[in-house]
Task: inverse folding
């Protein structure tokens, strides 16, 4: 399968991995949009949020809880941070393997671009 993030999971593409367990991987975004910009992904290939089912509720919960823990470890939990899932074209999705963006270390703005 020609998926960039599956290649990061199997280490055929290099990345700076900051967390790994049986189901998830987290690593630095290659083009950071904030002083801290991490991506949390499932090891299972899921193309978009639209493909999620009830069976994935625990997986998605684990992604959010892992992001929370990473934010704490980075020391940005109290100042705050942003979690983002982009879905399809209007959402600005570029890589079709779901990923949770963790952004922090600066003031975020609203509405997003
Ligand atoms: P999307 O726009 O799909 O929500 O986000 C994809 C993210 O993946 C972007 O923030 C982009 O910078 C990041 N990205 C793209 N290619 C690579 C890569 O080869 N390595 C890493 N670490 N991140 C990447
Ligand atoms: Zn994939």
Result:
């Amino acid at each position: 399968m020609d998926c960039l993030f599956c290649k990061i999971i199997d280490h055929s593409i290099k990345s700076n991995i900051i967390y790994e367990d049986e189901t998830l991987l987290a690593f630095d975004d290659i083009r950071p949009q904030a002083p801290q910009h991490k991506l949390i992904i499932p090891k299972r290939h899921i193309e978009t949020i639209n493909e999620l089912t009830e069976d994935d509720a625990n997986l998605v919960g684990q992604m959010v809880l892992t992001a929370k823990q990473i934010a704490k470890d980075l020391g940005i939990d109290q100042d705050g941070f942003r979690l983002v899932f982009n879905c399809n074209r209007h959402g600005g999705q570029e890589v079709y393997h779901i990923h949770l963006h963790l952004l922090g270390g600066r003031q975020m703005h609203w509405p997003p671009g």
